[in-house]
């Protein structure tokens, strides 16, 4: 029983180190998308998209993204470099 509790506690602590943590901390809001990705909306209102594999994706101003609950969100900006930096932050081999 104690071993199970220890394993659960260690797993909980380790999950915060996964990619995307810094991006979620920096975003005002993050929205799950129908395609398995995530839309990040930052404090300044600009947005970026992470694909289902955890990579920053390019957004076109003509795109309309569909959320996992079926809502449509028009793209207003493309902060791909900002999101890429946040996704990589703290995960370098140096």
Index terms:
single chain; 94 residues; alpha+beta; Thrombin, subunit H; four-stranded antiparallel beta sheet; two-stranded antiparallel ribbon; 31% helix
3D architecture notes:
The strands form two sheets. A four-stranded antiparallel β-sheet has the order 1-2-3-4. The chain has a two-stranded antiparallel ribbon with strand order 5-6. It has three helices and six strands; from the N terminus they run H-H-E-E-E-E-E-E-H. Residues 11-17 have low confidence and may be disordered. The radius of gyration is 16 Å and the shape is globular. The N and C termini lie far apart (39 Å). Helices cover 31% and strands 24% of the residues. With 94 residues, the protein is α+β, with helices and mostly antiparallel strands. The chain has one domain (18-88): Copper resistance protein K (Thrombin, subunit H, Beta Barrel), CATH 2.40.10.
Topology (elements, then pairings):
Blueprint: H1 2-15, H2 21-26, E1 27-32, E2 38-42, E3 47-50, E4 56-57, E5 64-66, E6 72-74, H3 80-88
Antiparallel strand pairs: 1-2, 2-3, 3-4, 5-6
Quick structural gist:
The longest helix is centred in the N-terminal third of the chain and has 14 residues, at 2-15. The protein has helices at residues 2-15, 21-26, 80-88; strands at residues 27-32, 38-42, 47-50, 56-57, 64-66, 72-74. The strands form 2 sheets. The protein has a 4-stranded antiparallel β-sheet with strand order 1-2-3-4. It has a two-stranded antiparallel sheet with strand order 5-6.
């Amino acid at each position: 029983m104690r071993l199970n509790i220890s394993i659960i506690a260690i797993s909980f602590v380790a999950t915060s180190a996964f990619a995307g943590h810094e991006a979620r901390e920096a975003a005002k809001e993050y929205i799950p998308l129908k395609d398995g990705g995530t839309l990040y909306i930052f404090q300044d209102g600009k947005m970026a998209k992470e694909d289902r594999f955890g990579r920053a994706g390019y957004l076109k101003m003509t795109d309309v993204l569909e959320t996992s609950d079926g809502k449509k969100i028009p793209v207003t900006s493309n902060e791909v470099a900002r999101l890429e930096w946040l996704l990589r932050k703290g995960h370098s081999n140096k």
